[in-house]
Design goal:
This protein is α+β, with helices and mostly antiparallel strands. It has one domain (3-83). Helices cover 25% and strands 25% of the residues. The chain is built from two helices and three strands. The chain has a three-stranded antiparallel sheet with strand order 1-2-3. A hairpin with a 7-residue loop joins strand 1 and strand 2. The longest helix has 12 residues, at 3-14. The chain is globular. The mean pLDDT is 96.
Length: 84
């Protein structure tokens, strides 16, 4: 796992979120994190946790009920670039 992804995983775990992060540095999703845990369902509570940590969606808006992918915890977010 790349160092920035490992730092993000530790940060999320310290804040009660179990996820696999992947930082996207190139392409159309530049400066975006993909956070996912396919064993966990997406919920408003999880969105609120991520919002409280300072994450936003690709449009710079807070995460909401329909930010997850098909009901599973798989989102693209921006924020916490200090972990790079």
């Amino acid at each position: 796992m790349r160092p920035e992804n490992k730092r993000m995983q530790v940060f999320l775990k310290q804040n009660g979120i179990k996820a696999i992060p992947k930082y996207i540095a190139t392409g159309s999703l530049t400066r975006t994190w993909r956070l996912y845990n396919l064993k966990q369902l997406w919920s408003v509570e999880l969105a609120n946790k991520l919002n409280a940590l300072g994450f936003v969606d690709l449009d710079g808006k807070p995460l909401a009920q329909y930010s997850g992918n098909g009901g599973l915890f798989s989102v693209f977010v921006r924020g916490h670039f200090e972990l790079l």
